[in-house]
Design brief:
The protein has helices at residues 2-6, 102-105, 109-118, 124-133, 147-154, 164-173, 185-191, 207-223, 225-261, 283-295, and strands spanning 33-34, 46-62, 65-79, 85-92, 97-99, 121-123, 141-144, 156-157, 161-163. The protein has 296 residues and is α/β, with parallel strands linked by helices. Strand 2 (46-62) and strand 3 form a beta hairpin. GO terms for molecular function: exonuclease activity; nucleic acid binding.
Length: 296
């Protein structure tokens, strides 16, 4: 719970501190909804989610150009226990889309049109959130990678969370230390369960593929403790080696700067040799100095 609070998750336990949280542009506290309590429905026990986003107009202008902000454009959800895909739908933002970011989101206007024709299009984040809430409740464990971004864009507050970026980073740093870094989904999928995702850069991310990969990483970490510990050890060694290299380069740069700032012999102010010990001024020189002193 401490880690979730540090990562700025919207959770019921820190409700009083919500006004102090720095939320992404366009996310208002009044739009946040807590996951519903248990009811007669049969919610899923563990659900993995992933969202893709596009850039929409923020309504604020700078230099005559409207500033962008992120908005939901695709939602995927998978039952972690069964692997069944629960949701795979595109979302049409209510605001004007300024950049589809297809290279990363995998979403484009033609895909939106195709989704409309096939009945796989949701209107706005409100409809997407309602769709997800039909599968989960307050007791559902939500799994994701850097999932605070997904929950923010869905405007959902939830407490039972497994974030694979935290799960794996804690294996490296421990559960009490500050997380110096986290690892991306693509790298973790390849290093841990041996999956290859996000390989076709031009087409952008495959939301279902990323969601399933997140599920596999979470399950792998739970079922392969010795292998996870070995991976974490390798990562610590790599991090230490990189730290040593940085320090070495820093020291080399410092010495190089010092060498460049040194004045070579024979340059700069002329060096006036001091008289040897026992040296006595001539009478004429002594008289001249006395006259100089008297003039002051």
């Amino acid at each position: 719970m401490r880690r979730l609070t540090q990562k700025k998750f919207l959770i019921a336990e820190n409700f009083s501190s919500w006004p102090d949280l720095h939320l992404p542009d366009g996310i208002n506290l009044r739009d946040i909804a807590m996951t519903p309590a248990s009811s007669h429905r049969c919610p899923r026990q563990v659900v993995a989610i992933d969202c893709e986003m596009v850039a929409v107009g923020s309504g604020r202008f700078e230099g005559g150009k409207e500033k962008e902000r992120n908005e939901l454009a695709q939602l995927c959800a998978v039952d972690v226990l069964t692997g069944v895909v629960l949701i795979d739908k595109l979302v049409l933002p209510r605001e004007k889309v300024l950049n589809w970011n297809t290279r990363y989101s995998g979403v484009s206007y033609p895909k939106i049109c195709a989704a409309r024709e096939s009945g796989r299009l949701l209107r706005g984040w409100q409809a997407a959130r309602a769709e997800l809430l039909s599968f989960i409740d307050v007791n559902t464990i939500i799994v994701g990678h850097a999932v605070e971004n997904d929950l923010h864009i869905l405007r959902i507050a939830h407490s039972k969370i497994v974030d694979t970026s935290i799960q794996t980073a804690e294996a490296v740093y421990g559960d009490t230390e500050r997380l110096g870094r986290t690892w991306g989904l693509k790298e973790l999928a390849k290093s841990l369960p041996g999956l290859f995702v996000q390989v076709e850069k031009k087409k952008g991310h495959d939301c279902v593929e990323d969601t399933l990969a997140t599920r596999e990483i979470a399950l792998w970490c739970l079922n392969h403790h010795p292998e996870l510990a070995e991976w974490a050890t390798r990562m610590r060694v790599e991090l230490e080696n990189k730290r040593v290299e940085r320090e070495k380069k820093k020291e080399e740069d410092r010495k190089k700067t010092e060498a460049q700032n040194e004045v070579p012999a024979g340059q700069g102010w002329p060096q006036i040799p001091l008289p040897p010990l026992g040296f006595e001024l001539s009478q004429g020189t002594s008289d001249n100095l006395n006259q100089l002193d008297a003039s002051y």
